[in-house]
Write a structure and sequence with these properties.
single chain; alpha/beta; TIM Barrel; 10-stranded mixed β-sheet; 6 helices
Length: 230
């Protein structure tokens, strides 16, 4: 598996290297590239878990589903860690039957395909297909599902969030709204009022809506670099 680095906070976060999207607001900064066997990587994660007394791990990136050996890693983690896969969803269906995870978080950048292409350089067709599959089969899945969107005033605002909520409301999937943090994309951070407004609109269609006001997913922690470059 090609990884960038590992972050340790209230959980272990494994950041893989490489992504098929070019998101204009992405804050991920790869720390070189290290290639490890899944067994070697599992041993490293297990040691970190023991040292920091952590049993939760998020596999993110980058885009984890681009890694061919992702399923084998999740099988090693199964039963020893509570694992969460964070994905853009574009290649999720190709691996979904082989994964052994507790949760799958799909980040839907936009429902409008033109906006999605502007933000990522790619169509959202495969992402929507993955979400539809998760929704239609949610009663038979062995993992929890959550959809998330970054709220970007002027691009992904109240109207677009409402449309996304209505779309995933067909299956009443849990929805997490993330406030945009200005970085590469020169757009403002949404106010608390806007965040509350999109949450209230989303709750018209969904029973489980949360925002980054209540819970920050990305907590600053210690970065661990694995020195074995390819």
């Amino acid at each position: 598996m090609r990884i960038s680095h590992i972050s340790v906070s209230d959980k272990i976060t494994l950041l893989v290297y490489g992504c098929n999207f070019k998101c204009k607001y992405c804050f991920f900064k790869p720390q070189d590239c290290t290639k490890l066997t899944t067994k070697c990587l599992y041993d490293i994660l297990s040691k970190i878990g023991r040292v920091y007394n952590l049993s939760r791990i998020t596999i993110a990136g980058g885009e984890p589903t681009l890694q061919e050996d992702l399923p084998s890693l999740t099988k090693l983690l199964d039963g020893n860690f509570y694992s969460i896969l964070s994905t853009n969803g574009s290649y999720l269906l190709e691996k979904i039957d082989k994964l052994k995870v507790n949760e799958v978080h799909v980040n839907l950048k936009a429902l409008d395909d033109k906006k999605h292409k502007i933000l990522t350089s790619q169509s959202n067709k495969r992402v929507l297909e993955a979400i539809e599959y998760l929704g239609e089969n949610k009663g038979d899945l062995n993992f929890k599902v959550e959809i998330s969107t970054v709220l970007i005033p002027g691009i992904i605002g109240v109207s677009e969030i409402g449309k996304i909520a209505k779309f995933i409301g067909r299956w009443d999937l849990p929805y997490h709204i993330i406030a945009h943090v200005p970085s590469k994309l020169n757009m403002p951070r949404p106010s608390k009022g806007i965040i509350e407004a999109v949450k209230n609109i989303s709750k018209k269609y969904l029973s489980n809506v949360s925002t980054s006001l209540e819970y920050r997913r990305h907590r600053k922690g210690k970065k661990i670099l694995i020195q074995k470059k390819v």
